[in-house]
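Forwarding these from the shared drive since the link keeps breaking.
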Amino acid sequence: MAAGPPPTASEAYRPNRFVSLPAELDPSTYDASPEKRRAEAERLAIRARLKRQYQLQLNNPNPPAIIEDPALLRWAYARTQNVYPTFRPTPKTSFLGALFAIGPILFWAAVFKADRDRKEKLIQEGKYKRPFSVF
């Protein structure tokens, strides 16, 4: 009697105490439940459909002025127009928001005040003549 097909690499692999198990051979990576396999197949089908639609537009003999990539449009929409459903206010985002909103105002206020104080000191010492102003 024949012994059957030889074992595959994943079946023949035996863990070594000196070397960790590669990710390709990790059972948690390739042994997926039927739900995970079905979800992965749906994602692959969507991706293939979008790719086919883009390829049809790209290779059209009478192409439109703008070739739209649906995946890129969805990504751009999620990044720009649909921010708030995925945004979570955290201390870091709150700090950065305050820094970018109030920071430039405080910076320029400090610069103008320092310049005004420097000129006022020079005027009081007599080293700078105040320019004529109607106001």
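-- next protein --
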Amino acid sequence: MTDLYRGSGFDFSNAVRNNHLESKGIHLPKATSTGTTIVGCLWKDGIVLGADTRATEGPIVADKNCEKIHYISESIRCCGAGTAADTEFTTALISSNIEMHALSTGRKPRVVTAMTMLKQMLFRHQGHIGAALVLGGVDATGPQLFTVHPHGSTDKLPYVTMGSGSLAAMAVFESSWRKDLE
């Protein structure tokens, strides 16, 4: 069985293969820049959220190490695409509101509560807050995964993508995702 965890650092295991293919006259596809891509998917025992780390201003990379996965609560996280300041402020505000809600109710927050707070706030501003969000977490009802669009609409699906690279990411999910992934 192949070791999935090779440790930290760069992995050049495909370099030999790529050189061999090029020597045979096969041209390898070039990587394309797609802007921000945020994703989430359910698996057998939980959820996985993912995001790239580049912040761009048009064709310019403004920050190579931008945090796009935001803390909401102990068991809830939110990925943000769009205007970096809007996603940061929106998730910080909802994180604070979720903490206040947990303190006032005496219960752990549910993912659907965070989703409702996010969608109500974004709907109130009618799309003027540039935050496209993938919200996920595990609560008393099990793993939950939502998308929240900048105008406040939401989706609950087993796998989701958002951002300008969402079509490429969705193609991977549609071809490879299956129920009860391990």
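The radius of gyration is 19 Å. The mean pLDDT is 89.

- D.
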